[in-house]
Structure formats: structure tokens, C-alpha cells
Amino acid sequence: MSEVTRVYAGRLAGMVVRGPDTDVIGRVRDVIVNVRPAHHTSRVLGVVVEMTNKRRIFLPMLRIGTIEPQEINLVSGSVSLRSFKPRAGEVAVLGEIIGSKVHVDDPELDHLHSKPLEIADIEIERTRTRDWAISRVAVIGERPKFGRRPDLHTIPWNHVHGLYAGGTGLPDEAAELLAEFEDMRPADVATVLYRLPENQRVSVASELDDERLADVLQEMSEDRQAELLETLDIERAADVLEEMDPDDAADLLGELDEAKADVLLELMDPEESAPVRRLMSFSPDTVGALMTPEPLILSPQTTVAEALALARNPDLPTSLASMVFVVRPPTATPTGKYLGCVHLQKMLREPPSSLVSGILDPDLPPLYADDSQETAARFFATYNLVCGPVLDDDGHLLGAVAVDDLLDHLLPDDWRDAGIRPHDHKRKEA
């Protein structure tokens, strides 16, 4: 069956959703979108799936591998089983958009201008970045009498007006702000968030999904991270910590009261809390406290093509994508014997069928967990790298340290709050 890259949301209703193992997870009951003003991309956030036990859960679009004519297949079996609850800035296509009234200004359909039109369906399309976005809207003009079928018109999304981040009608301020956040970097969202009045900041943060809030928290100073985390209920706080990088979660927990940090660690999934606990065991001024336990770790039998495919993961920070680390099994940290590393540039110059074990750089000296931050800085300056392996004394890979994490700790504690040019008031943004 051919993969679908463009489909009307109404066609997805009732469609079976299968996991990577082909087991049925449930059926689609709605499609959730983020509505932006005309000339901005309005993204499809995910689908609401009703499981066999009648619980409705949310599946992000990036978890979807393929949409086929009869079913949807997931790329990952890891899904959140929490009941779906809509947030501000999230609009349900079937439940809220279809049937609502809009107006259009499509120059090819000028006879529809200034007329209220009813939305019949929303067309969504996969983009080059594998996101999904609203592309066109099917609308109905005046409904005919005596049961005749109405005339349908398909309008490009940028010519449709009257839909807002809060749904239809008048714009909702919080929803519009959340919609703007969709196209912003997490660091810029963090800056905007802290310019808001405290009550609005807390309200908006509570409407961000766990993954997005985790990304934003990681771009704040640790004091502000702790301050915002304290406004969440204890279970939500644990969920957000699970979505953070382990090194950032460990730093944040270190800012909290010890008793509360222990409670949060207990509430976290054991697989997510284990690496955080390990990082918290290292002295704060050592490489061990800076490293991430989740770099690109491969077995010797991995091909260059497979390694490059993993490095393309858009969720992987650029620094960590620059290098792969090859070990004997097990490949989960702490790994088996560390064999060496391969830089991304070297893999790009090798045949795709080559094994990474044949192009190792075994001579690059590693960092050790008890090395100081100054040692790490000298390492990066000496070898012109942005990522380096961290080993224990027995030659097992514990993780990797990235230069951005090192700089974060070498700069003053409040550097994120002060901005890039804290003392330059004359220079304006282009």
C-alpha cells in the first residue's frame, strides 16, 4: 500500500492505529491542530485515539510512521497512556472546527467573498521536515433545499479567515500566545515567558505540553527552573522532569529541597530516574555532573548508513549528533568496553556499507567522570571538538559531555536571564 502524505482529517476518523508490532492500539477520534494566522504554518499536533478500554489518549504526529489508506502505523511503541485533556492553543478539527463558520478571500472564488461559509473538512499535508500542516479547507456555501448535495469549494489555507488559536470567534490571548510559541526556539519562549506577569506566566506554562515545557525549562537559569516547577502539581512536575535531558533534570533537582527532590525521583518512571540519580551522585564541578548518559552509542557491527540515519534524528542536539561512540555490548550506559569514536565528518566520507568499527579514532583520549570542568575545556580547545566521551576507570562509557553544557556551567549562574549581550543597549536586532 502506498503511504499517504495528504489527507482530509475527516478521513482519519475511526481509522485503526497500530504499533510497530502491528498490535491495534485503538481508533482515531479527532485531530488536534495549532491554528496560526494567515501566512503562518498551522501545524497538526497529533491525533486523539480511543483505546480498546475506551480511554482517550493523545499521539503526537511525530510518533506516526505512515498513514495508509486503511490504517495508521506508529514509528514507536512508546506512547503516553494519560487521558487526553485539551490545552489552550489546541483545537480539535472534528469536535470544534468542522461545522464552524469562516470567510475567505481566494481571488479565484471572488463570488464567495463576504459570505459566511461552513467548514466541511480540513486537508492536512506532510511537510519536508515530516511535520504535518493544514494545507487546504473544504467549505460549503449556502446549503441547498430538498436534500440536494451542497457545493463544496476547496480553499488554500492562507485565504481562510475566522479561525483562531482558541477556536472560532474572537481570539483568546493565552491561546494566541501559545500558538506563537510553536514557531519559536525554546530559549526565546523562555525569554517571553518571563516577561509576562506572574499569574499569566504560570497559566501559560500550565498549558504547554510536558515535552515543550521541559525544552523551555532547560533554557532558563536553575533558579527560574525551580521557581516555575514549584507552581506545578507534584505529579505534573515529575512528568516534566522525565521529558528533560537527564543532566538538566539532575541540575534542577539539585536546586530543590532534598525531601521534595526525593519525592519527585520516586514519582518518575524508574528508567527515567535511574540516569538522573547517577548524575546526582557526582560532584557538581566534575565532568560526571555535566555529561548526558544518552549520546549516540553503537555496536561495532553498525554500518555507516545506519549511524548517519541515527544522527539525523531532529530531537538530537547538534553537538551530540557530531560524534558516535562504539562499544562492546551492552550499549546502554554504563556500557561494555569502550572501543573508540567516529566523527560525523568522517562518516560522510566513507561508503555507506562500511562498518563503524573499521573507521574508529581509537587514539582520542577520553574524559573521566571525576575530571574537572577546566580539564573538559582544555580537551575541547585541544581537539577542536564539541562533544567528547566520558569513561570510568575500567574503560566503560558512562556518557558524553557536550561543549554547550560545559559553557552553561562556566558562565555566570544568571547568564540566561541576562541574555546574549547584557551590557549592549545600543545594538538592535536586525
Automatic annotation (TrEMBL):
SMART domains: MgtE_N (SM00924). GO terms for molecular function: magnesium ion transmembrane transporter activity. Residues 291-357, 360-418 form the CBS domain. GO terms for cellular component: membrane. Keywords: CBS domain. PROSITE patterns: CBS (PS51371). The keyword Hydrolase does not apply. This is CBS domain-containing protein. It comes from Corynebacterium vitaeruminis DSM 20294.
